[in-house]
């Protein structure tokens, strides 16, 4: 069981991506067929079946018998999908790109976006901490952290620091340091990395769990950054 599961009164055994079938529409608007690599394991079942069974117990059944029924409902109800050929998609070699809405002149619509400036560094917090994804963990790692194989690849949490900054702070590779922001702090190993610019630190998103290091913003700048300072600490 997971930490999230322990908070629930009812746990639904949702199937993994490898056990699911149906269609997927990507950001390009392309509809593609997906097929399960393995059968559902144990009590796991597809999401659509779980939702349908819950609806039935609540007295409002959907009457869906398969993913095909749901796809047909989408084709009937959503105008963008009206020309999608389910029979062609079922063959496995067909993908359909949804039509794009253009202006009368045949041009795409562009919406301006207001981007706020990044906060300027100050003497108290001279480094910009950037958070990002890594190859062997997905996003914040809430799901992938349960994979023993992936955890064997990356065993320790770390933050990357430019060698010149490390020298200035008297930090050696693999030293345990303390990152301090206006919101909190975190002890973590330092990895020297030439690819990181001076004045910038990089930390993978999964390593922020259980930490108040990154300040909460009601508006949200859209940037996973915050200003920090570094302190040496005993290992």
* Major sheet summary line: 6 strands, mixed, barrel
Name the structural class.
alpha+beta
Oligomer: single chain
For the record, the CATH architecture of the largest domain stands as: Beta Barrel
What do we call the CATH topology of the largest domain? Barwin-like endoglucanases
Q: Helical amount among residues, as a percent range?
A: 10-25%
Shape: extended
Class of the largest domain in CATH? Mainly Beta
Name the beta content range. Answer: 15-25%
Total of DSSP H or I helical runs spanning 4+ residues: 5
Number of domains: 2
- Give the integer mean of the pLDDT values: 84
**What order do the helices and strands follow?**
EEHHHEEHEHEEEE
Widest β-sheet, arrangement of strands:
4-8-5-7-6-9
């Amino acid at each position: 069981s997971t930490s999230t599961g322990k908070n629930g009164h009812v746990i639904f055994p949702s199937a993994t991506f490898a056990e699911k079938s149906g269609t997927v529409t990507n950001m390009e608007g392309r509809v593609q067929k997906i097929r399960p690599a393995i059968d559902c394991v144990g009590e796991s079942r597809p999401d659509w079946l779980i939702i349908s069974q819950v609806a039935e117990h609540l007295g409002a059944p959907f009457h869906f018998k398969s993913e095909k029924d749901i796809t047909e409902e989408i084709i009937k109800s959503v105008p963008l999908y009206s020309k999608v050929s389910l029979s062609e998609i079922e063959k496995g070699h067909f993908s359909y790109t949804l039509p794009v809405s253009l202006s009368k002149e045949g041009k795409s619509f562009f919406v301006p976006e207001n981007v706020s400036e990044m906060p300027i560094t100050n003497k108290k917090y001279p480094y910009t901490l950037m958070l990002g994804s890594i190859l062997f963990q997905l996003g914040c790692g809430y799901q992938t952290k349960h994979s023993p194989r992936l955890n064997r690849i990356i065993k320790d949490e770390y933050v990357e620091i430019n060698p010149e900054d490390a020298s200035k702070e008297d930090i050696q590779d693999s030293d345990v340091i303390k990152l301090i922001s206006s919101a909190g702090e975190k002890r973590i190993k330092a990895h020297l990395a030439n690819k990181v610019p001076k004045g910038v630190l990089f930390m993978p998103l999964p390593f922020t769990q259980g930490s108040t290091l990154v300040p909460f913003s009601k508006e949200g700048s859209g940037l996973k950054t915050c200003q920090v300072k570094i302190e040496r600490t005993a290992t």
